[in-house]
Amino acid sequence: MRTYDYAPLWRSTIGFDRLFDLLDESQHRSENNYPPYNIERLGEDRYQISLALAGFAPDEIAVTAEQNVLTVEGRKCDKDQREFLYQGISARPFKRQFSLADYVQVKTATFDNGLLRVQLVREIPEAMKPRRIAIGGATSGGQITQKAA
């Protein structure tokens, strides 16, 4: 894989620190492909992450949302020791982390037929949404009045 030097971009950008940190982290991290997952857009502000967790039970999986990181961990608690002639279904412990954008919240997590589905919604606070400002005429005091629409 090719590595990039982001130093020239640091000189001309302000407020994109987190973006460059994520890009830098993705370059240095060795990609682990277990467990396989899908990320889907269900609507303009709705998303779903699906993880294939064959062989795991719901009580062996932990889903944690903290700040802008969603963490899914799994650990098999093998109660009875079995002797496998061939084991093709992986049961190794895993920890998968997803970086979430600002204002993305985890709504629900369901486990059905070996698939863990995590529903995400982006809810931008009313104060952060764009609003139109009406421009009034100059009053006798020389002030411009603004009205929120």
From TrEMBL:
Pfam families: HSP20 (PF00011). This is Hsp20 family protein. Residues 28-138 form the SHSP domain. InterPro entries: A-crystallin/Hsp20_dom (IPR002068), ACD_IbpA/B (IPR037913), HSP20-like_chaperone (IPR008978). SUPFAM superfamilies: HSP20-like chaperones. Belongs to the small heat shock protein (HSP20) family. Keywords: Stress response.
